[in-house]
Structure formats: C-alpha cells, structure tokens
Write the structure tokens for this entry.
Amino acid sequence: MAPRTILYTGKGGVGKTSVAAATARRCAAAGLRTVVLSTDSAHSLSDSLETQLTGIPTEVGPGLFGQEVQAQEEIERHWEAVSGWLGELLADQGVDRISAEELTVPPGMNELFSLLQIKEHHESGEFDVIVVDCAPTGETLRLLSFPEVCTWWLERIFPWQSRWVAAARPFAKNVLDLPLPTDAALEEVERLVRNLVAMNKILRDPALTSVRLVMTPDRMVVKEAMRTFTYLNLYGYLTDAVVVNRIFPEEAGEGYFAGWRQVQREQMELVGSAFSPVPVLTAPFLPREVLGHEMLDTLGQAVFGELAAHEVLHHELSQELSAANGHATLRLALPFTGKGDIELQRIGLEVIVRVAGQKRTIILPPAMAAYETSGARLRDGALEILFERTGDGAKADQTH
Ligand SMILES: Nc1ncnc2c1ncn2[C@@H]1O[C@H](COP(=O)(O)OP(=O)(O)OP(=O)(O)O)[C@@H](O)[C@H]1O
Ligand SMILES: [Mg+2]
C-alpha cells in the first residue's frame, strides 16, 4: 500500500508543529509506521517531541520517526552542479562569492527541495504514514503547481536547448567569455523537474494525500487560511480538515477574557462559513505549552476525539473554478438539495453567499479582480457563481 501523506500548514505560531507531532503520535499508537518531518527551516519538532532530531529519520518511539529536513543538505544533493555553474557565472559578473552562492537557489525553492523527502519516503516503502509540518504559508504548494509548466518546458524546449548548448559552448567560451551550463547542470535540472512532477502527482492524489489547515480563531489568521484554502482548491490539492487551535474554554470566559471568548465565537462562525463542508476540528487553549508526549497526546485527543488521525476525513475539493471566453464559474460543494433564494454579496475579492439558511464566504484568487459577479444558481448539488470579465480585460479576452 502506498503511504498516506498529511501536510499541515497555516500562519506562523498557530500550532502546526504541535498538531503535526500529535497526529504522528496517534498514527504510531494505532500501529502504523509513521514519520513526522518538518520542512520549515526554523525547526521546533525536536522541542515538541523532546528528542534531538536530524536530517535523517530518527526513531523517537515505537513505530514513530522524526526528521528535521536540512534544506542545505537537500540543496547540495539536488542542485550542486547548477549552483556551481550559476555561482561561476555570477562571480564572473562581479558578484562576490558568498552572495553568488546565496543567489544560486531561486527564492522559495528551499522548502521545495525539502519536500522532495516526501517522494523519497514514498519510494522507500518504510512508512505507512508521512506527516509533514510545513512552512507558515501555502506558498510552497503554489510553487508545486509549476511542474506542469516545467513538464511542458521539459518536453518541448529541453531537447532543443541541450542541443543548442552543446553547439554554442565553444563559441560562448571563446567569443562571449561566458560559461554555458555544463551537461551535469542540465541533467540536474531535468532530474529535479522530473522529481517535482512525480512528487506533485503524489500530493495531488486525494486518495493518498491531504492538507490540513491549522489556525487560531483570530480574524487575520482565519482570513489567511481562507486564502490558502482557495489556492489549494485552485491547484487541486485536497483539504480534508481544518484545525482551529487554542480556543478559550468556557471557564476562561469570565472577567478579563470574556471579550476574547466573544471574538472567538464570531471567528468560529466565519470558519464554518468559509470551510464547510470540510470538517472543522478544534482544540482548546491548554493550560501549558504543548511539549512532550503527555501534552501532545492531550492535544491529539482534543483534536481528533474518536476519529482516526490518518484517515482521509473529507474526500472532495470544495471549490472549483473554471474560466473561458471572459466567463468564469465557481462551483461550491453544498451538501444539500433544495431550493431557495440565493443572495450574493461581493466586496473586493470576497464573495458572501446566503442560500436556504446557509452562508458561505469565499476569497477569490487575485486574478478574479478583473471579473464581475453576474449571478448564481443551484445545479447538481452544487452552487454555481457566475462571473463576467469586465473592462479592458473583456476586450483582450474576446480577441483571443
Ligand atoms: N492548544 C494549545 N494550547 C496551548 N499552547 C499551545 C497549543 N497549541 C500550541 N501551543 C503552543 O504554542 C506555541 C506555538 O505552537 P507551534 O510551535 O506548534 O506552532 P507553529 O504553527 O508550528 O509555529 P511556527 O510557525 O513558529 O512553526 C508552542 O509553544 C506550543 O507549545
Ligand atoms: Mg512550527
């Protein structure tokens, strides 16, 4: 059986590492061979599990392994020849050595190299469950949609480029005094792209992989999670649960914290309207920091209750956006059939829909700023919101 992969992401400090470690402990306790790895370079998994971890999986308990992926090591493994060539090129341009070395890895790529560990664990067959504690935003998952572009490039341009490079090398060296990419660098790029494409296939398989968004019930945090959710849906990554962490319990609702309780209640409503029908799991603000086995298991119990942590908790993408000829349609899963007036409200990139007593709040991707909302309808158990491209955009679109 191919392993199950669960990625945790969310804004800084919301509890990703704690929830990831708690999830891994529950999976291992259920008899599944589990690895929990963090790809965020500011690692805190060692503290959370109270065991010093390294770049390779270390056994921290029965059937449980922990790993803090070292970006630098991964870069050296996957990008050495390209770094060498680029470094030389930049040094030739007068960039000093240290800066040149820094510049040889494109921004945002660090975590991508670390995520390749997921593919390696998939292939090794050593684990039943891979739990990933990701960096604070979904940015990296957006980057992962590049392989589609890369494949196109690889298949059409690459054969020509390699040939062109071979032909141009003597000329470039003697006449331009410029080092062209070495064969080793070109091979490395090709291998990397193939690896990313293979990894993306694993991550987009909803039977194997899902993302869980961790948040606290604070407005800014929830909004950011909503944006990430939009991107995840857009790029076809399944979100199978959201985890709202650090909710003030009722007994904290007296006196000083009464106001906070009220604010958190409001944010919980927004969470419901933004992520439904994806299950919303919750955990209270615990009386102590979540460090060590006991606290992790308390957190795990609060989040999952009777649920099995490794299971796919929701099976469908919640939003689907399609666009053609200046028209766009956003399909939202609405798990009910029935008729009712649809009330639509649009504020910037935010769309609020009310239908048959339900409310949905969606944040549109920035490209949708060029579209006006033109209507909504219920069709095949889904709500469809219709958009028309406006102004210059519409004209540009029609000339295609
Ligand atoms: N439910 C909770 N109750 C009390 N403290 C918590 C809870 N969840 C997490 N914490 C504590 O909050 C702090 C931040 O948690 P954690 O490190 O898991 O967040 P993170 O999202 O991984 O942060 P970063 O973005 O910095 O990696 C830690 O000190 C952790 O012990
Ligand atoms: Mg963390």
The mean pLDDT is 85. The chain has two domains: 1-317, 319-398.
